[in-house]
Amino acid sequence: MTTATVRVPAKINLCLGVGPVRDDGYHPLATVYQAVDVHDEVKATATEDDEISVTVHLEADESAEVPTDGDNIAVKAAHLLRDTTGTEAGVQLAIRKVIPVAGGMAGGSADAAAALVACNEAWGTGLGRPELERLAAQLGSDVPFLLHGGNAMGGGRGETVSPVLARGSYYWVAAVAATGLSTKAVYAEFDRLNEGSNVAQPEVPDDLLAALRAGDAEALGRSLSNDLTLAALSLRPELAGTLDIGLEAEALGAVISGSGPTCVFLAADENHSLDIAMALAGAGVCADVIQARGPVAGARLV
Ligand code: ATP
Based on the domain organization, do 71 and 145 belong to the same domain? Predict the structure, then answer.
């Protein structure tokens, strides 16, 4: 039996511009993603029967709910690859989950990207990167970026990924909430809050791109932004307190990642990141605190 194991990072959104809802129900996005070193691992073992199965081992939050049937997005990825390539084999997927579930860090999308790469290897289906990227876009808006990794601009509904010029390595602290937020619910709240107003087409702020080009952490901290902030705060008012604690610890910037509820803080260096982490843990405003570095590579065989 052939086995392949893939490590895949989480993402944060350095900016997230959200436009008016489209006819297909999606919102146009203008975002800059950064992959950070909080990794899930997906192991694929090819089998001779035609079953696609999954087990999930929760490393961080044992109470998180991740489906272990066909609703698991890694299983959907395996089915899509099999249907596309016509292979007849089955696969046992084993996910080691560290990325917070429903945390706005694209944990499910990460597993889908990893499953594509792992099954492609275990089945010997030999698809190249461009073909895997096409399948990734069918699976979800964030999945192509998790194949790509590094820093990248996301357009369309997030699935159109293009590289950005960037320097530097950044120290992040993530405050993970006890319970996740549904991405769908946060977008619905965004629509409710904006009802009757003209939502502009989203753009990536020039000052954020300039900060990344220069590798200037202070400027990057000042230019972090997220158009879903009010919607996430409306559903979880207590996140305002979490953001304040990080800012009181002199974080260079604070932002809700994606649709939340994870709040991320930019630190000047490793010591500063420890100070922010201790302030958050001490204040008891979140269930877990993670220190992370970015950017890192996307889904890779190990
Ligand atoms: P995003 O940042 O892309 O909006 P998220 O990080 O907020 O996503 P996920 O962790 O991807 O959220 O989980 C969203 C939901 O998807 C979960 O509530 C879970 O039920 C379901 N799900 C399906 N497959 C997976 C998976 N492999 N890992 C985690 N969640 C999964």
Answer: yes
